[in-house]
């Protein structure tokens, strides 16, 4: 493999390009039977063993891209014989990819054309990209793989896909418009673009790529214990977790994350600049639809406003949105818990107990893996942490990133029906500058009942 020097210089502006050769194929069944036979060649291969293939070299944490090598998990082309990762790209959306192939909407050997898709801004290269333990839950080179390993993909006849994409956009949120209208936020024409409250933002989407030895270490278990749990608890979804101990990388079918950067992206890793950070875990009911049973949307909007303010003050504002719906228990479980809470009186002293009764655990977000994105971005300190979570705080500090100030959600932003949640969490260890209620006092904190809902 030819040496690769980072940062790779990629054109920011569009280049002339004709994508007519890649127009949508409505029915891939029109292709030859030889093409379709890729899926079911001589039968379905349920798993592979070390003697069955020769994986492309992949040395996690190697000091240079050409030594590290690309992540290859696709079986198409020569991938079955050369793949060096278990699982599939696109996280939970890999199943939809399979449906597209199975329903003959997508040619399984489609070759992606990445012309003009290169990052819209540069992410400064970080030392953490080239260590074995700093980043274990994402591919540090995931935004560059189609470009730096293009010749490898052609020479080896394998698919090498990105797991990170980098773009720019603007946000339009009612809360930001309100902040401008009420003079909490000033229009500067660069970050806050106009009186409508439109805000310029740089965005990074990340799919999970796990280095299994490093993930196991974060959880204090052995790699074998991790592999066994992942295989058995998913009803045997990925047999190679058991049969391929030589393959150390796994692309799990779980949600990823999105980074929203306000201000100059280069400031994020500049230790002379202040950083305000909100790490937010998905809550569709509140974040999108405004449910008032929790503080999720109010805290998210507060975090965005504070991040914008930090950027306007010459620093950097960062909001990271993780796809971990309902504390990673899922929305079905979350709504079952809501039912149990409302039928049981919905008091703060029973808040966690209701979840434990149904799910068997309070929380499955596992913040141990969360700081990886901070190290990838080059964040070495957090001046203002826009979160009260002790779990997020502890996970970040344990990874060597100091937090200077912790900023709780202002009381006036807490919806009345979410006092149950916030008071219970404060009692359980969430940061606060106010009162920590006793167990007896929590019994008197009661949410809305169904009789109060029209």
TrEMBL record:
State the family it belongs to.
Belongs to the GTP cyclohydrolase II family.
- Which protein are we looking at? LAME_0E04302g1_1
The keyword GTP-binding is annotated on this UniProt entry: yes
Report domain GTP cyclohydrolase II positions.
266-408
> What are the recorded GO MF terms, alphabetically?
GTP binding; GTP cyclohydrolase II activity
Q: Which residues form the GTP cyclohydrolase N-terminal domain?
A: 44-233
Q: Which domain of life is it from?
A: Eukaryota
Q: Specify whether GTP-binding is a keyword of the entry.
A: yes
Q: Which GO terms describe its biological process?
A: riboflavin biosynthetic process
Q: Which InterPro entries match?
A: GTP_CH_N, GTP_cyclohydro_II, RibA, RibA-like_sf
Keywords of the record, alphabetical order, are: GTP-binding, Hydrolase, Nucleotide-binding
């Amino acid at each position: 493999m030819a040496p690769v020097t980072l940062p790779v210089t990629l054109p920011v502006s569009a280049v002339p390009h004709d994508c007519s050769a890649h127009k949508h194929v409505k029915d891939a069944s029109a292709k030859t039977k030889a093409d379709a036979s890729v899926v079911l060649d001589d039968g379905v291969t349920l798993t592979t063993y070390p003697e069955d293939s020769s994986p492309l070299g992949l040395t996690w944490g190697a000091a240079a891209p050409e030594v590290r090598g690309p992540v290859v998990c696709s079986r198409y082309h020569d991938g079955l014989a050369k793949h060096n990762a278990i699982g599939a790209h696109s996280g939970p959306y890999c199943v939809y990819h399979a449906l597209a192939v199975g329903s003959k909407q997508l040619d399984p050997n489609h070759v992606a054309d990445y012309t003009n898709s290169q990052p819209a801004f540069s992410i400064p290269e970080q030392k953490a990209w080239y260590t074995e333990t700093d980043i274990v839950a994402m591919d540090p080179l995931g935004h560059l793989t189609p470009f730096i390993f293009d010749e490898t993909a052609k020479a080896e006849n394998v698919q090498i896909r990105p797991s990170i994409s980098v773009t720019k956009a603007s946000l339009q949120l009612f809360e930001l418009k309100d902040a401008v209208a009420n003079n909490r936020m000033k229009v500067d024409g660069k970050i806050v673009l106009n009186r409508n409250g439109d805000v310029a933002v740089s965005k990074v989407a990340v799919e999970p790529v796990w280095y299994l030895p490093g993930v196991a270490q974060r959880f204090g278990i052995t790699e074998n214990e991790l592999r066994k749990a992942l295989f058995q608890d998913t009803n045997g979804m990925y047999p190679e977790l058991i049969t391929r101990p030589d393959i150390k990388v796994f692309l799990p079918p779980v949600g990823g994350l999105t980074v929203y950067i306000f201000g100059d992206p280069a400031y994020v890793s500049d230790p002379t600049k202040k950083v305000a950070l909100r790490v937010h875990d998905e809550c569709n009911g509140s974040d999108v639809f405004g449910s008032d049973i929790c503080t999720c949307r109010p805290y998210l909007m507060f975090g965005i406003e504070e991040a914008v303010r930090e950027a306007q003050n010459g620093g950097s504002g960062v909001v990271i949105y993780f796809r971990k719906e309902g504390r990673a228990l899922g929305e079905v479980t979350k709504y079952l818990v809501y039912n149990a809470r409302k039928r049981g009186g919905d008091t703060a002293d029973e808040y966690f107990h209701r979840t434990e009764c149904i799910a068997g655990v309070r929380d499955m977000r596992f913040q141990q893996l969360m700081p990886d994105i901070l190290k990838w971005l080059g964040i070495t300190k957090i001046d203002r942490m826009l979160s009260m979570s002790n779990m997020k705080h502890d996970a970040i500090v344990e990874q060597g990133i100091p937090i200077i100030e912790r900023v709780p959600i202002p009381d006036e932003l807490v919806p009345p029906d979410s006092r149950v949640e916030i008071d219970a969490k404060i009692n359980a260890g969430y940061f606060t500058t106010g009162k920590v209620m006793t167990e007896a006092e929590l019994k008197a904190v009661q949410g809305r009942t169904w009789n109060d809902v029209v």
